[in-house]
Design a protein that fits this description.
By secondary structure, the chain is an alpha+beta fold. Helix 2 packs across helix 3. The chain has 5 helices and 8 strands; from the N terminus they run H-H-E-E-H-H-H-E-E-E-E-E-E. The longest helix has 17 residues.
């Protein structure tokens, strides 16, 4: 009886230990990828119109959005409200953000939906990875498209020829596609623990 009780107590102590950082990161990545993938077949339109949003936690209707909305929705399911985070960071450090739009102050309706602003926020608060770094599930990748526009998406946990697929919306709704190396990468980010 004494041995059983000791083994039971040891098992309970192990179960009570916090998960390791890699285990937490893996679990969070799985939530983010699943949340991004859940948008496929539901977000069907590319719609970049300016929309007044509730704050915090505001979103355009799920059937529409842009590339940033894929990232915003997926991270919100993992407990990160980019609308609030970007807005508060821009309030603290507006000069650190690109001046590509005529704005005298942060705007919680649109700032988080702009790729250069997300890139700035991610670089200020998360890990920036170099061009040669391996892309892992839930990493956020940004590209410059041939016409000069910015694009952003989330790395999937699925692969094609060894490359992670990307969950994104480039014009035909949210899709999971092999586009990682199709466009020139200009940013690669991994969420901090």
């Amino acid at each position: 009886m004494r041995t059983s009780r000791r083994n039971l107590m040891a098992g309970l102590a192990i179960a009570a230990l916090p998960a390791s950082a890699p285990a937490r990161a893996g679990a969070r990545a799985a939530v983010i990828v699943a949340a991004a993938r859940a948008q496929i077949g539901r977000t069907l339109l590319y719609d970049a119109r300016y929309v007044r949003l509730a704050f915090p936690g505001g979103d355009v209707p799920l059937d529409r959005g842009v590339c940033t909305d894929v990232v915003i929705r997926a991270l919100r399911d993992a407990g990160m409200d980019l609308q609030s985070l970007v807005h508060e960071d821009m309030r603290r450090a507006f000069a650190a953000y690109p001046r590509l739009w005529p704005a005298a102050a942060p705007d919680p309706n649109i700032d988080h939906r702009r790729v250069p602003n997300l890139m700035t926020y991610l670089a200020r608060h998360h890990r920036v990875l170099g061009a040669g770094a391996a892309v892992e599930a839930a990493d956020i990748v940004a590209w410059r498209l041939p016409g000069g526009a910015h694009h952003i998406g989330l790395a999937s946990d699925s692969r094609s020829d060894g490359r992670p697929l990307v969950i994104h919306n480039i014009g035909n709704g949210t899709r999971e596609e092999d586009i990682l190396e199709v466009f020139r990468r200009i940013g690669h980010y991994r969420l901090a623990d």
